[in-house]
Amino acid sequence: MAYLPTDILLNKxxxxxxxxxxxxxxxxxxxxxxKQPSNEHVLLVFNEHARERVTGELGxxxxxxxxxxxxxxxxxxxxxxNVWGRKKVDNGAVCLRKxxxxxxxxxxxxxxxxxYFRKSEEYxxxxxxxxxxxxxxxxxxxxxxxxxxxxSGEYSLYMPYDASGKRPPHYEKMFSELKKWSxxxxxxxxxxxxxxxxxxxxxxxxxxxxxxxxxxxxxFEIYGHETSRCERMFNPQEQNLERELKPWLDIIKELLY
Length: 257
Description:
Elements: H1 6-14, E1 21-26, E2 29-34, E3 41-45, H2 53-69, E4 74-78, H3 83-90, H4 132-141, E5 146-151, E6 154-159, H5 171-181, E7 189-192, H6 193-196, H7 205-211, E8 216-223, H8 230-234, H9 241-255
Parallel strand pairs: 3-4, 3-5, 5-8, 6-7
Antiparallel strand pairs: 1-2, 2-4, 6-8
Helix pairs in contact: 1-2, 2-9
């Protein structure tokens, strides 16, 4: 199946009808809510980095699966956080990562000063939560009990911290969940990101979330391929798309129960 252009992907998401589903916007960003009478609220964010189109495809399929899954918790899904950037990728800018202001929004949650160069792919922005994307996610996180931020570029099931080797709150619970989900992704790296990945990332949303009362916060890296070609580094070939998405649909379904 071919990758969908951004407008078509978002229109498909909005076309889904179910009594529990509702839709709203923050600027140009579509937000999908699955309402249940529950104290648990899960936030799922996809396609924060423009070039990671496969994650937006996964976001759409999660929305399409909600009626069948009927999760007992409230769920908020942002299928494409970086709408401007994904549209640029649709039109050929296949290596684009940052938002329209040249900010990596997953470095825009700075809790301690750490400065990336202005032209860096990880530039954190002029000040914390300066961007519409991070402002939206931070707002939604304040009422969430569980969070997953979905990326591509490797295969991994990560938990905080991204910027520190210290143990986060609820370490045992999160690590137990990651180990359980790893049966769906045996090739995945599993555990605290800063301890097992090759670098530390400063100012990420999962670190911000766990320090602001969210009980569980995860980063899912759903695909990666070693190549110099951006479109293949971050996105599987179209003929392999459904096969690559299937285990992550299983993981997210389990996350919602």
